[in-house]
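quick one, 199 residues, struct below
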Amino acid sequence: MRLQLALKITQSVRYFHMAGWLHKSLQSSNILIFESGDEHQVVEPVLTGFAFSRLNSPSEISEQSSSNPQLDIYRHPEAMGEPSESFTDAKDIYALGTILLEIGEWRSLSRLVEKIVNVEKGDVALSQLAKIRPFLLEDGAKGGLATLRFRMGDIYASVTKMMLCGEIPQSFAAAQGSAQIVFPNILDIAVRELSRCTI
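---
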């Protein structure tokens, strides 16, 4: 069920980006999930929270992060604080990576990062929030990805890490083979690789 949920959410974001739009507020609270009656089947998850969505245009500047650290933990570090650059698809993809981590661990992101920042207390400095991404990318025994490979497998963990890093690993780029795209898209690769996951 978790693999199917992650794949369907990733496909939804991919379609949104293919249409030339950015969500700009991806977080688990902006995903509605409807049950189908079959406990092992997930009906289409529905993306919501489009208040900040816009066309993907380099002239657009990111909005300042919210005053709610429980929501800001989903934001790419470059999208925090005073807006200084355009919001890009890489920032949506990072947020999607945090959601995939939540799905894989089956725990909220606030619980996953509580070792380094307590977002429950309310007022959290941007410097504390900036520590989240390095923590999530850490594969070591205490990092955010520490148990994901064990829980969800190599492919799922690698896809999640790819989204959090914003870089396509050589192993995925090589898998493109003769069908290699000139500029491979992270979401295309993520959908392809998640589709290969089996239980």
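Strands lie at 21-22, 31-32, 46-47, 54-55.
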